[in-house]
Amino acid sequence: MAPMKKVAPWALSVLLATCCFASAVAYADDEAPSEQEAIVVYDAPAEEQEAFSEEIVSSEDEEEALVESDGTVSDEETIPAQEEAAEEEPAAVVEERVTPEEKVASVEDNGSAVLMFSPSGDSFAGHEADSWRFRNGYPIELSEDVDESGLSAQAEFKMWTKNSKGEYISSNGKVITGAKRRGVDVSEWNGHIDWAKAKADDVSFAILCVGGTFYGSKKQYEDSEFLYNAKECERLGIPYGVYFFSAAENVYQAWQEANYTIQMLKGRKVTLPVYYDLEWEGVASTSNRTMLANISKVFCNAVKAAGFKPGVYASLSWWSYYLTDSCFNNWDRWVAQYYSRCEYEGSYRLWQCSSTAKVNGIGGSGVDLNFDFTTGSQDKAVTGSGNNPLQGMICPNPPSALKASDGSPTVAYRAHVQNVGWQGTKTNGATAGTSGQSLRVEALQIDVGGVSGGVTYRTHVQNVGWLPWMSNGMASGTSDMSYRVEALEIKLTGDVAKSYDIWYRAHVQNVGWQNWVKNGATAGTSGKSLRVEAIEILLLPKGQVPSSGGATVTYDAHVQNIGWMDSVANGMVAGTSGRSLRVEAMHLSLSGVSGGITYRTHVQNIGWHGWKSHGSLTVTTGQSLRLEASEIKLTGDAANKYDVWYRAPIQNIGWQGWVKYGAMAGTSGLSLRMEAVHVAVTPQGSGAPVA
Question: Is 558 inside a domain boundary?
């Protein structure tokens, strides 16, 4: 793992590359180096490389004049200090091919360990994530920094141990201030580990690779050694955490990574943090700072909700240039810098100091070595359940922004709209989104305040389908993927659900405003590829219905084995569908307009009952007789301004089409039960409601 380096090490690499080659050799992304080649990797801010290149000379004497015996450059003005370049963009990692002979010479000349990697083997085939650790899906073994003594970390790996006082010492023999314990991080590339030998060799903790994401397909993969490593650590009592190699480019992909990680930890006993490994070159840019902060919030908040302690892993250069948002103060930092000391000035828990340490029981050319600056006494083992309480999108904005402040029962909500972004918060029936502008709603936040209890909701999203249920201000949708919300469902939870109903409606592409629905019913469409363009939400005491700005029809049904069901209004379903239960009676009433509503029903063994009006009961509660048909009319001024539409699902037939003006919904003479009723009042000439 090659983080930002001290000036002298990368300068030496540049000198070595210049002496050995006429020019660098570039190769395609899908072309791996041959087994006869090694890779020299160095990175530094572009301005530093340019300034230093002006001082490179061809003669051996002049070269020696530039490099002191301690591995530093004598002319300090040639290379700006690290802190002076803190806001500059790091240059891309530079790679140059060298022969095995040149590799050996580089070790002799400057003490830097340049190691070959072999592209043979299939275990990592297709793991398509390039970073400063991996190239073309294979791990790169990188040059270790030269320390103050001129010796590489690899050459002095034995120094990463304890002195006679029991203090951990670095590659220069100096005490690592604050280091409490030594551990390793491993993946399938470290092979099959003998953890008993590793524990006996002062491995006090481990960080295990749980898996990662293919950067092309964005699919997750499992590290082939994870389960074995985890079970062995648990068996031997070695505290361990995990890391997940991210290739996310938006919060939805980070959500997928978090859920995959949580599933992989089901049944495992994780003691240390779950780290989000941020090192993929595809997002390494200062212009991605906000995105990197947002995907980290998604991942870390999800693993925290699942009971684990979250953390973030990155190199010193990433921490210095890319991961600068204050949100990273909320989680454990794990800093990679291959040097005799960690030069990160902020707080951190783990320091990854070397990738070539030698530990008993772990084969190969070396293993990543880490020091923990906590005792670990605050850590506790968490047995993963595989459940993520925050399944779905996690908004980068705090849910508390939607809480009601005046103490009154309030529903607050807002929409993320195409070309607009997050709009301001709306409350109690106000419109969120747009109408008449053909702009899609892409995500929603909903919260309730002034009451005991909460709200849960989900959205049906283009190319995704129904997302998991969200709650209390979290975002549902895909705010950075430009996908339309096509439908939504909302429910109240806790005490508020006992006294209130939550009503909502959607403005839908090519349809307009739909009728109000409530308490988990679907608003919008699914399977029709139509965007939701706006929503309105109301929190009303039970028994109240939304005002339509005109006529409102309210109705309820008495159903077999259930009794009277809650009143509904304007296009909602009263009764049941698909449960083979008969409607036995119903009431209807009209408000918001002068005039009235009349209705009659065809009843089993009785036939047509006389016309009823304004909430009068249609028989037959207590007689177990089915309603088989109904007819409904408007009267007075209402009949001049509105149409009343109605329909019913019928035994063995299903939902019939909409009818109006006293036409029959249902059947007569066929002995088939009505199972529900669906009624809507619309302005005259506006057509039948949308189901």
Answer: yes
pLDDT at 46 over 70: no
Contact yes or no for 152/114 (Cβ under 8 A): no
Confidence (pLDDT) at 61: 38
Question: Domain range spanning residue 296?
Answer: 7-383
Domain count of the chain? 3
* Residue 28 domain-assigned (yes or no): yes
Which residues have C-beta within 8 Å of that of residue 421, sequence separation ≥ 6? none
Paired tokens of 566: 């809650």
Higher pLDDT, residue 130 or 158 = 130
Does a structural domain hold residue 153?
yes
Torsion of CA 370, 375, 377, 379, to 10 degrees: -30
Question: What sign for the dihedral angle of Cα 151, 155, 161, 162?
Answer: negative
What is the pTM (predicted TM-score) of this model? 0.50
Region of residue 69 (left: phi > 0; alpha: psi -120 to 50; beta: else): alpha
Instruction: Tell me the sheet residues that pair with 591.
Output: 552
For residues 256 and 354, state if they share a domain: yes
Local structure of 444: helix, strand or coil: strand
pLDDT tens for 106-155 read: 232 333 322 222 222 223 344 546 776 676 666 766 555 444 433 343 43
159 and 179 share a domain? yes
To the nearest 10 degrees (0 to 180), the angle between helices 7-20 and 100-110 is 140
pLDDT: is 45 or 557 the higher one?
Answer: 557
Q: With contact defined as beta carbons under 8 Å apart, do 9 and 112 qualify?
A: yes
Residue 148 has a pLDDT of 42
* Secondary-structure percent of the chain, ordered helix, strand, coil, rounded to 5: 20, 35, 50
| pLDDT tens sequence across 469-515 | 888 787 888 765 678 999 999 999 999 999 999 999 999 998 888 87
Can you tell me the distance from the alpha carbon of 155 to that of 150, in angstroms, rounded to the nearest whole number?
10
Per-residue pLDDT at 594: 83
Structural domain includes residue 159: yes
Last residue of a domain, one of 541, 564, 590: 541
Q: Are residues 229 and 302 in the same domain?
A: yes
Residue among 42, 38, 60, 61 nearest 52 (CA): 42
Between the alpha carbon of residue 364 and those of residues 117, 130, 156, 189, 358, the distances in Å are: 11, 21, 17, 9, 9
Total residue count of the chain as it appears in this document:
691
8-state DSSP, 521: -
Same domain membership, residue 196 and residue 120: yes
What is the rounded CA–CA span in Å between residue 606 and residue 153?
96
Distance set, CA 398 to CA 61, 92, 394, 402 (Å): 61, 35, 10, 8
CATH number at residue 25: 3.20.20.80
d(CA 424, CA 401): 10
Three-state SS for 319? Answer: helix
Alpha helices in 334-415 (DSSP H): none
DSSP 279-296: -BGGG-SGGGHHHHHHHH
Q: Could you tell me the pLDDT band of residue 25, with boundaries at 50, 70 and 90?
A: very low
